[in-house]
Design goal:
With about 450 residues, the chain is mostly helical. About 70% of the residues lie in helices and about 0% in strands. The protein has two domains: about 160 residues, no CATH class; about 290 residues, no CATH class. Helix 1 runs antiparallel to helix 2 and helix 4 packs antiparallel against helix 5.
């Protein structure tokens, strides 16, 4: 079972109904049972199950004994799951090693660390094994986040489930929007990316491949987050949104406040601030920023390319801090006028760095960047060279336009709240348009094998 399958929708609906019927403290056990069922229906391998169980057992026992050991040992215990994650990812650099990363390891490991650190700081009491398992293995976010925090999760887990029509409706709509974003937009952009990045093409074709990939990875991950958050909401949980119009950002730092928000805030709270943040001088601040982005790169993948990608964001962030410091000293007030230009420039830097994120080797990345430089003065695209029809070309552009417009709207308002305030005919007209578009343009049907969500591999 995958979250793209009808079985997942039925599973999510069943979990919501059963959780509602079995209220009170049994909610903890209901969620636990559905987490176990999800792992089984996911057909997880033995190594997947063993590793997640080991992390859960360790987190439970370590939290129970956190205050019975020395501060240094408690800190070591708190970060030990992250050390294990780092060891798994770095094993690829060992000659002859061929490590297999368990499903969702990056996401549930960071949840385990946040739980242990919150217990160590005294913000949480050590929880029962069932609660720890529910938090680490919560099925809507198990594979690809968001990385929700333990305090809010435990509070909602201990609260009897009360049926809310608003939560059920908005949760279901958010799930459907996520699936629409995946099968209609993301998978189509993925296909265009592969074609425009073809080794026989260069110039504007390769540039368009870069742009298609930037929007593809955004649509793909945002789609999963919407499905996960929608499912959780139907169960009475309310994870924070994971994206907030990131390509409307005018700087790299703003981009990371809007992209994969749960990871960015985790790195801020558990890496950047403990390292000293900006409290120990400018040089130390810049060093801390670079360390955080290197950790982010390693978290995403265990190759040199991911480290280049992370370090690239770190260097740009440090440069932005220096420039921002200069303008603050000069009390320059005219920068806001340049925001549209800054947004465009920032998107260009982000898209260029995505090249390293996508490629398997440094030579492949260098080859793509080299082919981008072969731009001709005229912008003429012959779709026959790409291997698509003119209608597919137009649909690709429409997909980009839809994402840009939705980003601009989401930058300014909560689209679900706006939709819920509309009268019923308007809402149902919107739903029917989405359904019709998915049926006509969705990438599915006989012979179609949907691509898995890209962040499931991290």
């Amino acid at each position: 079972m995958t979250i793209l399958s009808p079985g997942y929708l039925a599973f999510s609906a069943a979990s919501s109904v059963v959780t509602w019927m079995l209220q009170g403290k049994r909610r903890i056990w209901t969620v636990l049972v559905f987490n176990l069922l999800f792992l089984l229906l996911l057909q997880a391998k033995t190594v997947d199950l063993v590793y997640v169980l080991a992390v859960t057992v360790f987190s439970f026992l370590a939290a129970r004994n956190m205050h019975a050991v020395s501060p240094k040992l408690s800190l070591f215990l708190s970060v030990l799951p992250a050390v294990g994650l780092c060891a798994c990812k770095c094993a690829v650099f060992v000659p002859g090693a061929s490590p297999v990363l368990p499903l969702g390891i990056s996401f549930y490991t960071f949840r385990a660390v946040s739980y242990l650190l919150e217990v160590r700081k005294g913000n949480l009491e050590a929880a029962s094994f069932a609660k720890v398992f529910d938090y680490i293995c919560f099925f809507p976010v198990f594979l690809a986040g968001p990385i929700h925090r333990p305090g809010a999760f435990f509070e909602e887990l201990e609260t009897p489930f009360v049926f809310s029509y608003t939560d059920q409706k908005n949760g279901f709509v958010q799930m459907m929007l996520g699936l629409f974003e995946k099968i209609v937009i993301a998978d189509f952009l993925s296909r265009l990316t592969a074609l425009f990045y073809g080794a026989a093409l260069s110039g504007w074709y390769t540039v368009l491949g870069m742009i298609f990939y930037a929007f593809y990875i955004y649509a793909d991950f945002d789609a999963y987050s919407n499905v996960a958050i929608g499912t959780a909401r139907m169960l009475g949980f309310h994870p924070e949104r994971n994206f907030h119009a990131p390509y409307c950002s005018a700087s790299i730092m703003e981009f990371w406040r809007r992209w994969h928000i749960s990871l960015s805030s985790w790195l801020r709270d558990y890496v950047y601030i403990p390292l000293g943040g900006s409290r120990k001088g400018t040089v130390r601040k810049y060093l801390n920023i670079l360390i955080v982005f290197l950790v982010s790169g390693l978290w995403h993948g265990n190759t040199v390319l991911f480290l280049i990608w992370g370090l690239g964001h770190g260097i740009l962030s440090v440069a932005e801090n220096m420039i921002a410091s200069f303008f603050r000293k000069k009390k320059h007030e005219g920068v806001k006028v340049l925001r549209p230009l800054l947004v465009a420039v920032n998107f260009l830097f982000v898209a260029l760095l995505w090249v390293f994120f996508r490629c398997a080797t440094v030579n492949e990345a260098v080859g793509i960047l080299t082919r981008m430089t072969m731009i001709k003065t005229d912008f003429l695209i012959d779709v026959s060279q790409v291997g698509i029809t003119i209608n597919e070309w137009y649909w690709g552009l429409i997909c980009l336009i839809m994402l840009v417009i939705s980003d601009i709207l989401r930058y300014r308002m909560n689209m679900l709240d706006v939709l819920s305030r509309q009268i019923m005919p308007v809402r149902w007209a919107f739903y029917l348009i989405l359904l019709f578009t998915a049926m006509v343009f969705g990438v599915y049907g006989p012979g179609y094998h949907p691509e898995d969500f890209i962040y499931v591999t991290f």
